[in-house]
Amino acid sequence: MAEAVASAIRRAGNPGRSGHALSLRSARDLFSAREKLAELFGAKDSSRFVFTENATAALNQAIKGVLSAGDHVVTTSVEHNSVMRPLRRMIETAGVTVTVVPAGPDGVVDAGAVAAAIRRKTRLVAVVHASNVSGAIQPVREIARAARRAGAYSLVDAAQTAGSIPIDLSDLPVDLLAAPGHKGLLGPQGTGFLYVREGVPVVPLIEGGTGSRSENDHQPDFYPDALESGTPNSVGIAGLGVSLSWLLRRGVDRIREKEMELLEELIEGMRKIPGVTLFGPLDPGRCASALSFRVGGMDPAETGGRLENRFGVLVRAGLHCSPNGHRTLGSFPEGTVRVSPGPFTTRKEIALFLAAARKIR
Ligand SMILES: Cc1ncc(COP(=O)(O)O)c(C=O)c1O
Questions:
Q1: What are the residue ranges spanned by the domains of the chain?
Q2: Which of 18, 116, 228, 229 has a CA 20 to 30 Å removed from the CA of 282?
């Protein structure tokens, strides 16, 4: 992936803006990465995948592009700030109302409770696929179905699952799906996407040059140009394309299997350490690859610092940009330490991590 980025930066032409060789090469990189996204997520039409800078940009585009005054939104108590903050802005400035459905103490929301919160004016149901704090997987299929039945659109934040839990949009009735390129998709930072199902009306947040219909000062209404204005991060997207090829070859189902095995060892090992508190469903079948914990009364930042400085283990400590997620788990305001095995993590590394946690304890 790094090689692809380096190679792309040496020959970066502005895609779709010229007919010269470098512009065409960049355009091909973009097209190829888009096609791979469609393949990975089971969508027929790759043009419905709009490249963004990250998941936050995708979520903002979805939320602000779908909602208008008088609309109602249903969301959950385990969302990331990249959903909660745009919603807060919409409440305060755009006349939107929001119902936050509380998840259980394990961080899982009940699909029935979400369905019951949908009203006549509900335009959007926004739910995270899996919590980035506890890993808890949410019943997105049932939630998306309930939204569709009620005539509302569903938005899934797949930041913690894209590339590590299979998502098949040909079978999942989700209308909008947002993800970053740099997490489970293994791409570079500064990449991400928003998938918009055909027929879902989204007003662009940013309008401008697309290299298409240049004679007209109206934003094109066809995808991806409708939501993709300005020079894209073609260098980063070239890198993302290579990561997507790797994921397609490896298979997300195999990655999921491996991460579940590692998570199982991690949970079982951590359960045996006295004084360690674990948060979330604590069941690899119900969790994305993330485990939140605390060691005794130690500040999570202190635990994280010791893990790095004494054992070379890099984790994230604190509130993980999801204060509501922590309130739900009872870990607010200190937060937790989160450890997340990935596709390249080994069993030996899990054993080293457990030994480190025991020593810190
Ligand atoms: C659940 C969730 N949503 C959204 C985001 C925002 O992603 P990005 O930093 O790519 O904007 C994250 C980032 O960690 C996340 O975990």
A1: 2-250, 252-360
A2: 116
Tokens for 191, please give them.
């990449």
Task: At 38, give phi and psi (nearest 5°).
Answer: -60, -40
Q: Decide if 325 contacts 316 (C-beta within 8 A).
A: no
pTM over 0.85: yes
Under CATH, which number does the domain 2-250 receive?
3.40.640.10
Nearest ligand 1 atom to the CA of 157 is 3
Distance from Cα 96 to the centre of ligand 1, integer Å: 23
Can you tell me the distance from the alpha carbon of 114 to that of 109, in angstroms, rounded to the nearest whole number? 8
**CA 192 to ligand 1: nearest atom:** 10
Give nearest CA residue, ligand 1 atom 15: 159
Q: If we measure between CA atoms, which residue out of 290, 293, 235 comes closest to residue 259?
A: 290
Give 10-residue mean pLDDT values along the chain (361 residues): 93 89 92 98 98 98 98 98 98 98 97 98 98 97 98 98 98 98 98 98 97 94 98 97 98 98 98 97 97 96 97 96 95 97 97 97 93
Q: Quote the Cα angle for 187-189-190, to 5°.
A: 115
User: Which CATH superfamily groups domain 252-360?
Assistant: Aspartate Aminotransferase, domain 1 (3.90.1150.10)
Determine which residue's CA is closest to atom 2 belonging to ligand 1.
159
CA distance 355 to 347: 12
The string over 202-237, giving b where at least 16 C-beta atoms fall within 10 Å of a residue's C-beta and e elsewhere, is bebeeeeebbeeeeeeebbeebbbbbbbeebbbbbb
